[in-house]
Design goal:
By secondary structure, the chain is mainly α. It is built from 16 helices and four strands. It starts with a helix and ends with a helix.
Length: about 500
């Protein structure tokens, strides 16, 4: 008996559905009617589309956003994610909300998180530099205007971020150029006065060679000092934005080891300066080693920064990587300065052995050459920094301007009506079948034998029940067999 309670007869279910086709149709009609009412009430939503190209930066200046440019697919994906996060940041989206949305009675605009989640969609095309930006609005014009404002605000934000480091570098170089120019004028005056006092019209060959040798070393020392101070200025600017958060390179053994190896290679290269020219095979070999090691340091810095920065803030990740890079430059520049200073001390000792006239001339000529080299170098870098500060970033390009949508993207009328009809059919059929199967009553002699397992001795006919049964039987006989009936008869015969 218990086994029979869990047995489901598909033919019985088909009979139940056939007998209750009118209620099923009514319930389905109600669902479709509700869907139609929703379509009449629900406002249309339009979507404007724009295409942006995010490419590797090839401009004059290196900004904090260049951390991810490594020339490989992984770095490109990280850079794309960085720009997606910037596009959805508060500094970009909030001005768009205030310009396109209406404030409530209390003067409050829609929430930033809700606006980004429901109205802004970004999707990069796989293995390309193209980023698709979609913005939704109540009208075609509103959607297009919001998308245009979003793109403009995004480009402005990119420009502001890329100028942060350049501004700090420019201020530093501007001060250094002024002091370098004063040093150059002073050194040239000293040299001219010394030549006039000692009646030197042309230096000897030995003095000229010795002057060029010590001047070249001191030029490199001065250039290295500029690199050190510029890296320190960048590091201070980044720490100001990070609030001195994030670990230092000293906390990572791999980066620390790479920095030590790079410092050794730089020291070895400095030792070759008195022996070889830049075209010598040994100089070429060590220059290649230095370049390869710098690439490894950059890759390791990107990897560590990706782990230490918050996963939902790619801009912060770029700042951390910039901090690590600046710290590495400071460490290597200091070690390089120590090696150069040793050579300078040796040259000064050799200089003291020369006659007084030649010694004085070499010192004056050296100071003038070094001062001139420093001034030219600083002036060139200052001009580059000024240009990089005012120029627009060239790594974001608008491929397609925001479109004016012609048709709403929601609500989708056809899909909603079909889903409402399917939902009405499924729920009504499920409800009716469940109620019929759960409401078990004894109607026939077969029910007595099946459910009570008792023999039937006789039956007393009920006039009302007989009349209802006869009407139902007549209705079935008059009714044309439907598709389900034909399928059921065919299966039954089989």
């Amino acid at each position: 008996m218990e086994d029979q309670e869990y047995t489901i007869d598909l033919l019985e279910i088909a009979d139940i559905l056939a007998d209750n086709r009118k209620p099923i149709a009514k319930i389905t009609g109600v669902f479709v009617l509700l869907a139609i009412l929703y379509l009449l009430i629900a406002p249309p939503v339009y979507e404007s589309e724009a295409l942006l190209r995010i490419k590797q930066d090839q401009g004059l200046g290196k900004s904090l956003l260049d951390t991810f440019t490594g020339g490989n697919v992984q770095m490109s994906q990280q850079q794309m994610s960085t720009f997606e996060e910037i596009l959805k940041s508060r500094g970009v989206v909030v001005p768009v909300i205030e310009a396109t949305e209406e404030a409530d009675k209390e003067g409050k605009y829609p929430e930033y998180e809700n606006y980004v989640e429901k109205k802004i969609t970004t999707s990069p095309f796989k293995n390309t530099e193209i980023l698709q930006v979609k913005v939704k609005g109540d009208t075609p014009e509103k959607a297009q205007r919001a998308n245009q404002l979003l793109v403009d605000s995004f480009l402005k934000r990119i420009t502001d971020l890329s100028r942060t480091e350049q501004t700090a570098t420019k201020f530093f170089l501007d001060d250094r150029v002024k002091s370098a120019k004063a040093d150059l004028e002073k050194a040239e005056t000293v040299l001219q006065n010394y030549k006039s006092e000692n009646k030197i019209t042309s230096p000897t060959d030995s003095a000229r060679i010795f002057t060029d040798r010590i001047a070249d070393i001191e030029k490199q020392a001065a250039a290295n000092q500029v690199v050190l101070e510029a890296a320190q200025a960048r590091l201070n600017a980044i720490n100001g934005q990070l609030g001195n958060s994030g670990a230092a390179t000293a906390d990572n053994r791999t980066i620390q080891q790479y920095n030590q190896e790079l410092a050794k290679l730089e020291s070895t290269r400095i030792g070759y300066l008195d022996k070889y020219t830049d075209k010598h095979p040994r100089m070429k070999e060590i220059n290649d080693q230095i370049a390869n090691l710098k690439r490894k340091i950059r890759q390791e810095i990107d990897k560590v920064a990706a782990l230490q920065a918050p996963s939902d803030n790619a801009v912060h990740q770029g700042l951390v990587a910039g901090k690590f890079q600046s710290e590495s430059e400071v460490i290597v520049a200091r070690r390089k300065a120590e090696a150069l200073q040793q050579i300078i001390n040796k040259n000064n000792a050799d200089l003291e052995k020369l006659p007084e006239v030649e010694k004085g001339y070499i010192k004056a000529a050296r100071d003038a050459q070094v001062a001139n080299e420093i001034y030219v170098m600083l002036a060139k870098r200052l001009e580059e920094a000024k240009v990089a500060e005012v120029m627009q970033p060239n790594n974001v390009q608008v491929v397609d301007v925001p479109t004016l949508p012609e048709k709403p993207v929601s609500p989708r009328k056809g899909r909603i009506l079909v889903l409402a009809a399917l939902l009405g059919i499924l729920l009504s059929c499920g409800y009716i079948v469940t109620m019929e199967l759960m409401h078990r009553t004894i109607h026939t002699e077969e029910d007595v034998q099946n459910y009570l397992e008792l023999p039937v001795i006789g039956a007393i006919p009920d006039e009302t029940s007989m009349q209802r049964a006869m009407e139902k039987q007549k209705e079935r006989e008059d009714r044309q067999p439907g598709f389900m009936s034909k399928v059921r008869d065919y299966i039954w015969k089989k």
